[in-house]
Amino acid sequence: KKIKSKMYRKLKKRRLARTEEKNLEELRRVDPEAARELNEEAALKRAHERMTLKHKNTSKFIRGLLKHGGTHRDRTREAIVNQLKEGEALRMKMQTMKDDDEEELTSDDEDDAKSSLRKHAQN
After folding, report:
1. Cα torsion angle, 69, 74, 47, 22, sign
2. φ and ψ at 36, to 5 degrees?
3. CB 47, CB 93: distance < 8 Å
């Protein structure tokens, strides 16, 4: 039978977070490079989550304003525009991060190809 209690789920989530943190600490001690990569992946995931959820016109407050014409007030319209600009800035940041990663991969591939050609030419 599935437990439906909010408190149980909250405690379970905390317990899971603690074990994740302990595992990450252990990984930092054993393999710092892998821990750094996990941190980078987590940062990308957080940025993507922020980008997709927070900075769009999908919140209940904004939908209500748009539905009932509350955007006629200057401060409200300015807040909405700022929110959309922030979302666009985060999207651009994510795109540049992806482009940088792809460039690193392609340059590594080119270096590998050059070294293999040199080895082949020497033989």
Report:
1. negative
2. -65, -40
3. yes
pLDDT top residue among 116 and 18: 18
Sign of the Cα pseudo-torsion (61, 64, 70, 71, in order) = positive
* End-to-end CA, the chain: 67
Tokens of 61: 């407050």
Query: DSSP states of the chain as a string?
Result: -----HHHHHHHHHHHHHHHHHHHHHHHHH-HHHHHHHHHHHHHHHHHHHHHHTTSTTSHHHHHHHHHTGGGSHHHHHHHHHHHHHHHHHHHHHHHHHHHHHHHHHHHHHHHHHHHHHHHHH-
- Residue 122 scores a pLDDT above 60: no
Using one digit for the tens of pLDDT, what is the confidence trace for 54-83?
Answer: 556 667 777 777 777 776 777 777 877 887
